[in-house]
TrEMBL record:
Superkingdom classification of source: Bacteria
Listed InterPro entries: TPR-like_helical_dom_sf, TPR_rpt
Keywords in alphabetical order: Signal
Stretch forming the signal peptide: 1-20
Entry-linked SMART domains: TPR
Protein name as it appears in the record: Uncharacterized protein
Pfam families: TPR_16
Lineage, broadest ranks: Bacteria, Pseudomonadati, Bacteroidota, Flavobacteriia, Flavobacteriales
Amino acid sequence: MNKKITLSLALLSFIFSVNAQTGTDVDTAIKYGRYDVAKKDLYKLIRTQPNQGRNFYRLGTIHLIENNQDSANYYFKQGLRAVKEPGINNIGIGKISLLNGKDKEAKSKFNAGTNNLPLNDYETFLVVADAYTKAPKPDFDAALDYVNYALLVDLKVPEPHIARGDIYFAEKRFVDARRVYFETSKMFPESLLPKMKLADVFRAGNEFGEAIKVYDSIVAKNPDYIDVYKQLGLTYADYARFEDDKSLLDKGVENYFKYHGLIGESLDSDNELATYLIKNKHYKALGDLVRTKWYTRGDNFYMYRYRAIADFQNGKFADAKESINKYFDVQDKKENILPIDYLYKGLSELETSRNEDGTFNEAVYKKSIEEMSKAVKENPQLGVALHQLGVDLFKDEHFEQAYFVFDLASKDEKSPYYVYDMYYKGNALYMASDSPMFNDQLQKAKSDLDNSLKKTPTFEAYLISARVNRNLNTPTSLAQMEKDYEGFISLLTEKGRANDAAFKEALVEAYTMIGNYNKTTNKEKATNAFKKVLQLDSSNEYARKQVQNAN
């Protein structure tokens, strides 16, 4: 088992101060997503070197990556007026045309952009090939044509050969891609790029262990090869999800931090690192990152947002409330605030508004839920995100927070997750009932589970509803408990899951409770239920005694 890696503030400070690059290479900054750094330099260059068309192309490319097509188009067209290398901007305009389904226009622009290239320029052909490969409607034949042009220019470098494999990879022809990468690796044994690509194929096929072996061999050969650390970070994260083993993620986070330490400081790269940590739910590292970066990146307002998320997920609700409110305050453009931000704002306010006994002030709760509901209505896609967030919180046994999220998600009865949102909502209330948030918590749980069962019966909802009714312990609820357990057994049998080992314990519980409920009123039904228990678990002494006593 991997030892857990604690990313202390001291370690993070070391990574970011010792390994950070000095100086700026615009193309390198673009490659590693340091767009804010690259743009700053490019704005200066287009003022001081207005005749250099490639600078306009680079700036337009960044805006295109950031999905600002209008700005990208503006800079590409400005670049066409330059004296030196104006034609490269046709490539950028062609990309925009391709993104908008204007294939003929794109082809014309790509032709114009590649007509008068320097004799040794194979890279531009590969850029066009990549554009066709990643287009909304990929044209792999056109991409391969441009790769072949690149091969005609220079056969003695690995990149054109690898690009051929990349096309196969995009087509999900993984065997062909692997063959090309392997052949390229043999042709260029000193190049690490084909080895990286081979590892990518392993990763795509969920062969994470094999991929990591290849990446590690690259690190052993060249510890300064920056790209490998990002791939290790991504691969370990995928591996952790695939194996449901959080300890693997620690290794991924370690490598991803190392990658970011090597590429250098940037607001955009800070945000990208934070996004990685949020996506992979490593909130401890996110909190460490924010506190470390705060001293050097205080101008990055997103840090307020990331600190709020980290503090909320780490149970520091007062700090989360303070941070998310600051984030809202510093935003000049309110349209930049996402619906999920309103969710965290509302959840943080809820958590800090508890009564002394741990229950919630009903008025505050209702108001907060209404405010957060606005965010859900503004963005229907948030319902999917809410469902996943709620499931993650539930799995991590944050039942109270999970309840809030599912309460919001269940406002949309048209949601494909509505039935399960209601189920989880009721289950979360049941799981948190030892320290209730509401005075009538079990009744609320019962109502939610009833709504879920009315919409679409599921064996999960039947089981939890039975437990809730058992805990309510009234004559009416106990009668309903029996019906729920019977519904659970019936639906499980109907689905062909009654013999699954995973449900053995729950079935023993159901038959035992049915037996106990009928012991004095319907002895035959009770005995049959206890016999079912013995069929499932022959060592169950309680059921055995009940059957013997009945005889």
